[in-house]
Write a structure and sequence with these properties.
Layout lengths: L1 E8 L24 E8 L6 E7 L6 E6 L13 E4 L1 E4 L7 E7 L7 E8 L2 E2 L3 E4 L7 E6 L10 H18 L5 E4 L10 H7 L4 H4 L2 E2 L11 H5 L26 E5 L2 E5 L13 H16 L5 E8 L11 H9 L1 H6 L4 E5 L4 E4 L2 E2 L2 E2 L10 E3 L6 E4 L26 E2 L2 E5 L2 E5 L5 E8 L2 E8 L11 E8 L20 E5 L6 E2 L4 E3 L3 E7 L3 E5 L7 E7 L2 E3 L2 E3 L4 E9 L5 E2 L6 H4 L8 E6 L6 E14 L8 E10 L1
Parallel strand pairs: 1-41, 11-12, 12-13, 15-16, 16-17, 17-22, 21-28
Antiparallel strand pairs: 1-30, 2-3, 3-7, 4-5, 4-8, 6-7, 8-9, 8-10, 11-26, 14-15, 18-22, 18-25, 19-20, 23-24, 26-27, 27-28, 29-33, 31-32, 32-40, 33-40, 34-39, 34-41, 35-36, 37-40, 38-39
Helix pairs in contact: 1-2
Bound molecules: fe (ii) ion (FE2).
Fe (ii) ion binds next to loops.
């Protein structure tokens, strides 16, 4: 009589049943037309916000599933849904807006999603998550301002090409950051459609920023729902969130970066908003409350305070240039991203409205921020819809609101390390690393004899760590881990030899299973169990029941929280089912240690005396359960 081992694995799933009201008439599919789908940032890296337009005011949602589980456009039964909220659009937009927040995303996962309702889903789109800790890159785009050239199709083509070029070169970029002015004319939906034409905006999260061309209507808010948004009157240029304007300030944390986005259209209290004082208070409050949750702080707003072209000397820019810098320095802001002037500039490190280090050389490739040093970057046009030529400094001084010349480079404004206008599309890439930010301005169209992808400017910013020394240790992500089992050693036949007739009543045989090695390196520390059973012992036409086999499991090598299963008597002893039904060999509870264990079992076979002579064999089927 012999026993040998085979294996199978079982994955436990949970099936859910949708219960509907019996007898209810079949529901007609919602006829809503769905459009303008855009993926936006959520409150942190585990979230995304999807926003879209609907022709009907119906109940809708976002459906989400791992992309690997979606086949032929069919979402699995276990797909998640996230209910949408929304409201009626303004009359000139028509229809309704919807948005839903996707939560609970996992690292390193490709997801498929679609919007709508059962029977009327949009096409499916995909996005991916990456590591939720550590280094990452994001891309920053200035003023697409679709329609600014007077030719929407041209502007759309340039914008789409910049998205394609930048994401082909940086497919793992994690965020697309807006410099504001998505469109030329706030409520012109044809321009919004052109802005949204590229599927890249459904694959990578867009961090919306409101520009002066977006502010004059509700279309910006209808199209681009943002997380943690404060829609107080203070952050609306006219002080009235209910009016036909868009606005609001918001923040979110992506990995180790706190992003704060301001509606810089609201700067004059005379127009009804809270002005710059409200923004200063907002930035101060957000950083005081959440700054410790991130290593980096990045501010984004539309109206550049340090730039070099048509808007460099604007009166409102001069006001902000006095109102903002000291607070940003005091709060340890690392990087400020701006738009509006359709020119690329990179500032010197600015502290309290002055050049932090008078010796910083123009165009330096590496800068070291002392206390309060802040880098300000203005992006050029990402679509090519409009460029502004660089203007000349004047004699209004080299600090604060002044637009005087840089003593080290008199063609430039005092605050700018680099000024560049090639009348060619570009974008800014920011590499966020352990102890540096690398900021690059990159051509998305050929210019100045340089190809697409060539670098206009490249600077590494080293942050200030105070007077003390900081010590950092990087704890890598543990391997996702696996649970599994193998036969420990050679999977030889478990030969129980020749049974011995005992007391004239039964035959007895004994042995041991080949030990089972269980390994569990999962971070989830989820419970597991190994069980086994045997079928009938068979020799040709002859057989006897597997229930006559019993066992006594034991822990040969402790680990992974393993506990040996209970003894099971031969059915000969207790008229029980022995190992003919599944019996536990070993298990571990939730929260157990990671590692491995070796499980063994003594086998105890007692066969009734009337069983015919033969050479019987059965199969021990081992089943692993884990969740
Ligand atoms: Fe602008």
């Amino acid at each position: 009589m012999r026993t040998h081992l085979t294996r199978n694995g079982v994955i436990l799933g949970v099936a859910t049943l949708a219960v509907g009201a019996l007898g209810a008439p079949a529901q007609a599919a919602d006829p809503a037309t769905l459009s303008a789908v855009i993926l936006g940032v959520g409150a942190n890296e585990t979230q995304r916000i999807v926003t879209w337009y609907s022709s009907a005011d119906s109940t809708q949602s976002v459906q989400l599933a791992p992309a690997a589980s979606v086949t032929g456009g069919e979402f699995p039964a276990g797909a998640q849904t996230f209910a949408a909220l929304g409201s009626a659009n303004i009359a000139s937009s028509g229809g309704f807006n919807r948005h839903a927040t996707i939560t609970g995303l996992a690292e390193h996962t490709s997801y498929s999603y679609r919007v709508g309702s059962e029977g009327n889903w949009s096409p499916a789109y995909t996005f991916k998550t990456q590591d939720f800790e550590g280094d990452y890159d994001f891309l920053f785009y200035g003023d697409p301002q679709i329609g600014a050239s007077g030719n929407v199709a041209n502007d759309q083509a340039g914008w789409t090409d910049t998205l394609n070029v930048s994401l082909a070169a940086n497919p793992d970029a994690e965020l697309l950051v807006s410099g504001g002015d998505q469109v030329e004319t706030a409520n012109t939906e044809a321009q919004w459609n052109a802005f949204l034409a590229s599927d890249k905006l459904r694959q990578y999260p867009w961090m919306a920023t409101i520009g002066n061309h977006d502010v004059g209507g509700k279309a910006y808010e209808q199209h681009l729902y943002t997380p943690n948004t404060d829609r107080s009157g203070s952050y609306y240029s006219n002080g009235n969130p209910a009016s036909n304007t868009s606005g609001g300030n918001y923040w979110y944390i992506h990995k180790d970066t706190l992003f704060i986005d301001l509606n810089s259209n609201s700067y004059a209290t005379s127009q009804g908003g809270g002005g710059d004082a409200a923004h200063v208070k907002y930035v101060t409050d957000v950083i005081n409350q959440h700054g410790a949750e991130a290593k980096w702080t990045v501010l984004v707003y539309h109206h550049a305070i340090y730039s070099a072209a048509a808007h460099a000397k604007d009166s409102d820019a001069k006001v902000r240039r006095v109102d903002f810098p000291k607070t940003f320095s005091d709060l340890g802001v690392d990087l400020v991203l701006q738009g509006h002037d359709h020119v690329y500039t990179r500032s010197y490190l600015i502290k309290n409205g002055q050049k932090a280090n008078p010796d910083e050389k123009p165009g330096a490739s590496e800068v070291f921020a002392g206390p309060g040093g802040v880098l300000y970057v203005t992006s050029n046009s990402a679509s090519g819809s409009k460029y502004y030529d660089i203007t000349n400094p004047d004699n209004t001084g080299t600090s604060g609101a002044g637009n005087g010349a840089d003593p080290l480079n008199p063609d430039n404004y005092w605050y700018n390390s680099v000024q560049n206008q090639e009348r060619a599309r570009s974008y800014v890439k920011v590499q966020v690393r352990n102890d540096k930010l690398v900021v690059q301005n990159i051509r998305s169209a050929a210019a100045a004899g340089q190809p697409v992808g060539s670098i206009v400017d490249d600077v590494t910013v080293r942050p200030y760590h105070g007077d003390n020394q900081q010590i950092q240790v990087n704890v890598p992500t543990a391997a996702p881990g696996e649970f599994g089992w193998t036969i420990d050693g050679h999977n030889g036949l478990v030969d129980l030899g020749t049974a011995v007739e005992t007391a004239g009543e039964y035959f007895a045989a004994a042995g041991k299973i080949n030990p089972i090695k269980v390994s569990d390196s999962r971070r989830s520390l989820s419970p597991w169990a190994i069980s086994a059973s045997v079928g009938d012992f068979v020799d040709g036409e002859k057989k006897f029941a597997g229930s006559y086999l019993g066992w006594g499991p034991y822990l040969a090598t402790a680990g992974a929280g393993a506990v040996a299963g209970a003894d099971v008597a031969s059915g000969y002893d207790d008229d029980g089912k022995g190992l003919s039904v599944s019996r536990g060999l070993g298990h571990a509870e939730q929260g157990h240690a990671r590692g491995s264990a070796v499980l063994g079992a003594d086998l105890d076979l007692k066969i009734p005396g009337e069983v015919e002579k033969g050479n019987y064999r059965t199969t021990l089927t081992i089943t692993a359960l884990s969740s």
